[in-house]
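Table S2 (text version). Query chain:
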Amino acid sequence: MGLVRTGPVSGYGTAAGTGALAVLLLVGICGSPAYTGWAAATLTDPDSAGGFYLRLLAWPAWRLDADGQAGGLFAADLRAVALVVLAVALLYLLPAAQVARVPGPVSQFFSGWAAYVLAGGLAAVLAALLGPDPSLLAALRDASSGAGYGFLTGWIIGTASLGGRA
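Corresponding structure-token output:
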């Protein structure tokens, strides 16, 4: 006796699940030491829009070693880990696609985008307050940069959330 599935099996995942996968890929690839080193050192001109955006994608940078940073490896990777955890949690908690007046792809897109904006700001605040040199001013400044990162890159998460089940 094995598991018996009744009812149709959909080929699509949930909107939150596909958004969570996009978060993992975005932070895993664009926050990697290889990408952040490339974005900082090569052809990305910080005075051009393209160069600015490529550097912005590296905001949730993570490392494999602490590299002498105060607080060790935990402090070095706190922002990236908090961003992934908060984004995935918010993608599953934001019910916009289920309670929207017009349910469908538009609400899924904005729900995914909003989850990433909130996750970026909250991750920056947590990293600033739990990091090696906590201060309220640093937390407020970092919240601004984290929410800005989420606003300018959250469309990727919103797009990944399209087409899934609510």
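Notes on Table S2: The two ends are 32 Å apart (CA to CA). The helical segments are 15-30, 33-41, 49-56, 72-93, 96-99, 105-130, 136-160.
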